[in-house]
Amino acid sequence: MTRVALLWHMHQPYYEDLVTREHILPWVRLHALKDYYGMAALLEEFPDVRVTFNLVPSLLVQLEAFAEGRAHDRYLEVGLRPADQLTPDDRAFILKNFFHAQRARMIDVYPRYAELLAKRGLSTAAGDIDDALRRYTVDDFRDLQVWQKLAWIDPYYFDRDVRVQALAARGRGFSEDDKGMLRAVELELLNAVIPTYRRLASAGQIEIATSPFYHPILPLLCDTDIYKHTHPQSRMPRQRFQRPEDAREQLVRAADCHERLFGARPVGLWPSEGSVSDQMVPLAAAAGFRWMATDEQILANSLGTTFSRDGAGFVNQPARLYAAYDVGGAEGRIACGFRDHALSDLIGFAYSGWDAEEAAGDFVAKLAESGRRAQQAGASDPVVFVILDGENAWEHFAGQGRPFLRALYRRLGSNGDLRTVTMAEACAAPVAPLPTIFPGSWIDANYYIWIGHQDDHRAWSQLGDARDALDAPNTTDPVALARAREEIFIAEGSDWFWWYGDDHSSDHDLEFDDLFRRHLRNVYGLLNRPVPDELFATNISGGARLQPQRDPTQLLTPRIDGVDGSYFEWLGAGSVAIKDVAGAMHQVERQGATVAEIGFGFDRSALYVRVDGVGGLAGLVAQGASLGVICLSPEGLRYQFGAGGTAKGQAIRLQRHSDDRWHLKPTEATFAVGAIFEASIPWRELLADGSASISFFVTVHDAAGLETERHPAGRPVVVTVPDASFEARHWSA
Predict the structure, then answer these.
(1) Tens digits of per-residue pLDDT, 517-544?
(2) Are 565 and 520 contained in the same domain?
(3) Based on the domain organization, do 424 and 304 belong to the same domain?
(4) Is residue 67 part of a domain?
(5) What's the distance, CA 418 to chain centroid?
(6) 3-state secondary structure 463-494
(7) Are residues 576 and 720 in the same domain?
């Protein structure tokens, strides 16, 4: 008989900003409605089938918060707001974001939802959204508020709950009471998730495994230089990150969380992204884990062999693959199973386009044949490990994958050649020792995704600096210090690095980038340390949806008087319009913002900066506010304008020395604040290091000197110093 160990991995990154307490993306809540509950509840129909669920703690604690009503995200709040009370910003946000779902399986199958998408159009460019706003009625917005959530309700509820069935059958013309009722259904589902898993685990039908708390890549936490094992010539972050103590803490805290929620310590570990190394093995063993899992290519590389496949997809060494191994040495040992990535990928990437019965039949036949081949090769008790994402694939299946899963479980339960087992059962008796394990992940048996790109290098460097700041002597009170440590642990998560680089991209790259840097900025704030300016600039080197910059086209020399005078005075200047960038977090930052546009230009002697305000800048300065020009390049240089209520005169120039303190320096920079803000900064002060370009942010500070705004969001203004041919290149008749 062939044993089948099926593991569904459930994971979401930690979306909450610990300062604003906002969850910037809604995926924990929405997947809880559709997948986290239904995937477990469905198994109760098949009591003879045993599977393992891996539930990541960063997902579970957010799920708890949403179930208890403690968590909020803008999608939830705007979705519940009465449709006739939506602000223009609310309506634009809804039109831009309430169709984030797989179109064929989750939108087009519902006529009203598809109609609303057609009415909006496929483009989310600002101008197209503005046009769509004029086509939408209040009733349209209310229907969209309902369908954005209704489309995510688990098919299990769709089949059984009369409230959900009635809403879906009506399709349109929903009321505010309907929205309230759907919110009640939502809370029921959210509150059912963890108890359902706990009940099935207590009955012995499922095993619940875990991952490091915030889903970090453990080998990279232990030592980023492990990446050189597969990429010896790679460029690396500016400092080596070595924090095995953090890896240990992420494991211990994961086990503690699991015990609190499910009543027992976990014995199984899916290392984040299947990432393993010799250094993380004893850490996992010391934390009490008895088994872990990773990919077949890691096993092949560890054994010094190659797993090839024939034309039908069957592996050439089934007896070696379909077994658990005893990994490690004297410092700690742990059993390890290795996923058959060909079989796992059939579910994840191939079967969504098949008929459910045919797909399940094909898969079970392949499992049985794989086991027979392993037995023929000498394996007495083979076990096939199938491990994959347990949530995202179903959006591409008919019926959210439920017809396929029912067909699969029915066949697994009735096939006499196969027996489903939990991962703990599969790994209980390893067949052979594996003294050393190849360092890598389930993707190409390396860590390139998380450290191979220049954007990753920047992020790891920033993480390393913040982690060092946490260890530096300080007088921070214990509560703030603990919060700063929590921010570090969150920033160590794998997901921020997953979205950096050109490997993966989504509609939410900017939100992930912003939240990563926000966590690190919070560390410095909690430690009462100055925040490095680079943490205000995006780490995304290409493709980011940021405010476009228009560069200067001619030399200019404006009069620095704060007056919006002659049209020709700033003609040919560069500019950046300050407007909302996609994402709820940016909306929070924009509330009360005073800067509407930044202008900049130059002549041969100076850089000129202009700021147009939403309200009166002069009035703010008179009340003690000030503006600043914060240079990212050259590093450690900033100017402050208007401190102490001054509306005109000489600026304050500050330069950071090696002692990390800011020192006052003489300056010839001048400014004036009236209807607009204008400043002049001599090139000789800006270009002391011989640079050919500079980059800067414009900031607003309150009367106490605290920074309240920084613009542009995510990426600084970049100015190339005019050379001798500048005018010739831009001349036109």
Answers:
(1) 999 999 999 999 989 999 999 999 875 5
(2) no
(3) yes
(4) no
(5) 38
(6) HHHHHHHHHCCCCCCHHHHHHHHHHHHHHCEH
(7) yes
Structure tokens at 702: 């309150």
In a domain, 280, yes or no: yes
Closest to 609 measured CA to CA, from 653, 639, 567, 654: 639
Residues 6 or more apart in contact with residue 599 via CB below 8 angstroms: 570, 573, 574, 575, 609, 610, 611, 612
| Residue ranges in the chain modelled with pLDDT below 70 | 543-547, 579-593, 615, 728-733
Letter for the amino acid at 325? Y
Strand 432-434 to strand 325-329: parallel, antiparallel, or no bridges (unpaired)?
parallel
| Token representation of residue 528 | 């009462």
What Rg, from alpha-carbon coordinates, does the chain have?
29
Q: How far is CA 600 from CA 132, 311, 549, 551, in A?
A: 34, 63, 10, 8
Q: Are residues 329 and 477 in the same domain?
A: no
Nearest to 466 by CA among 510, 525, 513, 539: 525
CA distance 274 to 439: 10
Kindly report the CATH number assigned to the domain that includes residue 580.
2.60.40
Token couple for 42: 């469905």
Helix (H) or strand (E) holding 284: helix 280-286
Count up the domains in the chain and report the number.
Answer: 3
In the DSSP assignment, the letter for residue 304 is: T
Contacts 24+ apart (CB under 8 A), 626-629: 626/700, 626/701, 626/705, 627/671, 627/673, 627/677, 627/698, 627/699, 627/700, 627/701, 628/698, 628/699, 628/700, 628/701, 628/707, 629/679, 629/681, 629/696, 629/697, 629/698, 629/699
Q: Which residue has the tokens 């208890």?
A: 68
Same domain, 463 and 387: no
**Residue 478 forms part of a structural domain:** yes
Domain hosting residue 580, numbered range: 549-730
C-beta of residue 613 within 8 angstroms of C-beta of residue 676: yes
Domain boundary among 433, 448, 463: 448
* Span 367-385, pLDDT tens digits: 999 999 999 999 999 999 9
CA 478, 480, 485, 486 torsion-angle sign: positive
Q: What are the angstrom distances between the C-alpha of 733 and each of 550, 602, 728?
A: 21, 21, 12
Q: Given this model, what pLDDT does residue 707 score?
A: 80
Do 439 and 295 sit in the same domain of this protein? yes
In this structure, what token pair is assigned to residue 413? 């339960």
What DSSP line would sit under 427-475, residue for residue?
A: TSS-SEEESS---B-TTTTS-HHHHSSHHHHHHHHHHHHHHHHHHS---
Segment (H or E) for 521: helix 509-526
CA distances from 236 to 217, 219, 461, 499, 670 (A): 16, 15, 9, 18, 42
User: In angstroms, rounded to a whole number, what is the distance separating the alpha carbons of residues 226 and 240?
Assistant: 10
Cross-strand partners of 597 = 577, 612
Instruction: Give the number of other Cβ atoms within 10 Å of residue 717's Cβ.
Output: 23
Tokens of residue 334, six digits: 């742990």
pLDDT at 503: 79
Instruction: Indicate if 465 and 522 belong to the same structural domain.
Output: yes
Angle, alpha carbons 34-125-179 (nearest 5°): 35
Look up residue 498 and give its two tokens: 């997953």
Residues 250 and 341 both lie in one domain = yes
Whichever domain contains 372, its CATH number is 3.20.110.20
